[in-house]
From TrEMBL:
UniProt keyword annotation of Transferase present: no
InterPro entries: Ptyr_pPase, Ptyr_pPase_sf
Gene3D superfamilies named among the record's database cross-references: 3.40.50.2300
Keyword entries, A-Z: Arsenical resistance
Protein name as catalogued: Low molecular weight phosphatase family protein
Domain (Phosphotyrosine protein phosphatase I): residue spans on this chain: 8-149
SUPFAM superfamilies associated with the record: Phosphotyrosine protein phosphatases I
Pfam families recorded: LMWPc
Length: 154
């Protein structure tokens, strides 16, 4: 798939579907509107969407507070077929391994974007927010590099 082409459907994934993949899903929807069907999932879904992730997304007008974390397993249970996605973007090594394992029988692209996990990197609210902003900005930079400049921003 050529750079700057927006696939018809994209799945972002990370470890818990509580920080990196919900941020990516929210930004993709805001930046590119209805150009693609966008979802996100985690290897596990043992956490709710992270409050710091919500805060740093709010700063750029991306709303993720209503995001409900889900795992690859739940996606399958709900009838979201991984083989139906044109592109899977893994934001963590564990999610990349699982995505490759679950899709080995399908012909689709799995890309790995090495995005920093901001949890536990800093003490205190401001330092933690700075770490989360760094993660958000890494995702934004990779997204624009991959899909081109935002087309649907308010």
């Amino acid at each position: 798939m050529a750079q700057n082409t927006i696939p018809a459907s994209v799945l972002f994934c990370c470890d818990h579907n509580s920080i990196r993949s919900p941020i990516a899903e929210g930004m993709m929807k805001k930046f590119y509107g209805r150009a693609a069907y966008v979802q996100s999932a985690g290897v596990k879904n043992d956490m709710e969407v992270d409050g710091f992730a919500i805060a740093v997304c709010d700063e750029i007008g991306v709303r993720i507070e209503n995001h409900r974390s889900r795992s690859f397993e739940e996606m399958k249970d709900w009838g979201d077929d991984l083989g139906g996605f044109d592109l899977i973007v893994a934001l963590s090594p564990a999610s990349q391994r699982q995505a490759l394992e679950l899709t080995r029988v399908y012909h689709l692209d799995v890309e790995y974007w090495p995005i920093m996990d901001p949890t536990g990197l800093a003490e205190g609210r401001e330092a933690r927010l700075a770490a989360y902003r760094q993660t958000r900005d890494q995702i934004r930079a990779r997204m624009i590099e991959r899909f081109g400049p935002p087309t649907a921003e308010d």
